[in-house]
Each structure stands twice: as C-alpha cells, then as structure tokens.
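Can't paste images in this forum, so I'm doing it all in text. The chain is below; anyone willing to post the predicted structure tokens underneath?
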Amino acid sequence: MMVQDRTFTAVVKNRNFFVLWMAQILSQTAQNGIHFVQIVLIETLTRSTAHMAVMILSFSLPAVILSSVAGIVVDRLSNKLVMLASNGIRVLTVATYIVVLDRLGGWSLLLVIYAVTFISSAIGQFFAPAEATTIPLLVGEERLLTANALFNLTLIGTQVVGLVILAPLTVKVLGIKGSFAIVAFMYLVASLLLSRIPRDKPRLVVQAGASMLKTAWEELREGWRYVAGKRSIIIALSQLAMTTTLLMMMAMVAPGYSTRVLGMLPEDAIFVFAPAGLGMLVNTFLVGRFGYRFRREVMSSVGFSAMAVTMLGFGVAGFDLPLWATIPKMPVIMALSVTLGAEISLVVIPAETLLQEKSPPELRGRVIAVYFLLANVVAIPIMLFVGSAADRLGIPQVILGVVFFLTIVAAVTTYEAFRFRGIEGGLFEDGTAIEYYSHTDDE
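Text version of the structure:
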C-alpha cells in the first residue's frame, strides 16, 4: 500500500483538524491584536516608557510562573475542556477592559488593566499546550509534520494580520473599546468552533490519600526527568528557546537598526524585516511537503547553524566598511531577512514536531509546557541585557555578541544531533511503510 498523503490538502480534509485550525486562526489573531491594543491603551493613558515596560511584563511573566503548572493540568484534564475554558475566560477578561474604561481612572484604572492583562496571559498558558497536544490526536504521526507546518504558517499569518492589519485598523475606526469588543467576539467564535471537536478522555487520576500539592509536585518532577533523559528533546528545546529569543530580540532592535544603522525612519523597519515573513512562508510550505525525507534533528540543527551565519551578516552590515561603497546595502539586508525567515521555519517546525513525537500522551502537556517556560526564562534576561547593551555599545556590536552565543549553541546541538544513528524503516501491520528514529540515548 502507498504511504499516506502528507499534503496540506489531505490534512485540511480532516474535519476535526480543520475546526481546530480555524479556532487557532481566530484565537491567535485575537491574541496578537490585543497586545497591540494594550500597548496603545497604555501609551494613550500614560505616555510613559516605564508603564509600557510594566505592561510587557504583565503579559510575559505568566509564562515563567505558570507554564509548568499548565503542563500538569493539560496532562490530567481533557484538552478540549481546557481550551474551551481558556477561551471562555479570555472573553470575560477582554470584556473587563471595556467596563473599567468607562468606570475607573488614574492609578486604579492602571492597576486593574495590569491585573487583567496578567490574568488573560495566564489563561493563555493553559490554552497553548492543550492545543499543541491535541494536534497529534487528530492527525496521527504520519501527518504530524505537515500539520505543524500549517499551524506554524498560520502563526506567522496571524501575527501579521493581528499586529499589522486588524488591530491598527480597528483602533483607528472603532477606537480602543471597539477593538476590545472585536477581540472578545473572536475568542467567542473560537470557543464555539472548539466545541465541535471530539472530546478526549479526561486523565485525572489521584492516588487515594495523596495530597493534590504532593501529586502536582511529583508530576512536575516526572515531566522534567523525562525531558532531562531525552537528548533529542533537549536539543529541540534548546533550539526552540534560542530561536524564540532571537525573534523577540530582532523585533526589539528593528526600529533602532532601521534608524541608527540604515539611516531610515523607525516605522521603515517593517520594510527591512518584512521579507522574513516571505522566507518563513516559502520554507514552511517546503518543510511541510518534503520534510519527511530528513531527520528532524538534522533539519533543525542545519537551520540553527545557518541562522547564526545570517545574523553575522546583519552584524557586519552595521559597520561602515569599504564593501558598502560598491554594493547597495538595502538589497543585501532584505536578502538576509528572507534567508533568516526561511531558517527560522527550518528550526521551529521539525523541533516542535520532534517534541510531540517523542513525548508520550500522558506527558506531552508537561513537555510542551517546559518549552514555553524555558523560552521565556531565557528570553526575559537576554532581552533586558540586549536592550541596555544596544544603547551603550551599539546594535551591530550586540548582534555580533549574539552571533558568538548562537554559534556555541549551534555547535553543541549539531554535534549531538549527528550522534544519532539515523533513520530505520519498518511497516505497519497493513504493509504501509513508516519511518522512525533510533537514538543512542532514547529507546
């Protein structure tokens, strides 16, 4: 028999996956859009960079505090129930913004806004791992890479639509309260869609006489022990955490790179780095369609190593070298941007797929939660350091420092990835060909 069809069309024809995908589009667009509206709201109320930093921390800190707890909850409860409850509560939190804007003012308004933002972000920590652990249940391992590629492609699209198109447009046309109303409506429709997917079986099992706190602590340790014992998962987590940090860092320094390095306006940064979206789009399609032919660890390691080289190009472009007297700098920057986007897709899609494939269903939520926790634990201090160092030393110098760190991580993870013995073949009971991996440390 022939291998299952792994095209995007075949995945989308899966009705349950299609419903989850539509819910993801609405939820992610709403999430990206509300971040823009929150920032505009604080800027409008305070005109203060310090208050802006508090707002950013309000929707960043919950990932550090609650990711591990969220993983335990997802592993013990129905994924569908967790996603429905998360989106339902987010409808209420967004509606709260509309209510308090009419009734409060001054410091009391700001404190409520920060608190609601924190709560909304905290709820999102439960939604993300529940969604990620649902995908393998709906599509199976044969089409998992394609499904993740499609979700990654959607994630990129919703970032553009939410941050660049929908949120600015609704704020301009409907105002801040109208924008919050649109976001709440999108979360509500996403909840209605999620109610249509099949309910997975709850997995809540508590031993008689065991306290909930002790049980939670033991399960948390179990998840971390599992991650620590899987070299392939450690490689994927390291690469994903650093790639997420790099994306956040580039978003932070992009306006300064545009003005201080390229001599353009801050808002022109979108024209410099928007081509990265094109690179992500094209390579997401290619990885989803042809990535099954290659080992996950090798693809992500090659992408991560290439990413370090591309970042070196961004750093070199920031110096006044004789080279730029003969070669136009802007086309080079745009080419580097396209390349960086393609490399990010080559890291993220295989690494996320490997996390799902290598995690047993009863532990998958905790493994995904470790990724979200690690990404934020790594990103927050690096972002604070890079922001300060860029002002003192210069953006090109900071980029070169980041390249040095990326090179070390790339060398270690690539060496570990190529230590695996490689692909082994096999057959399902019906004769269908399969591929699986034999690792020196795993099975």
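The chain is about 80% helix and 5% strand. Confidence is low (pLDDT under 50) at residues 421-443.
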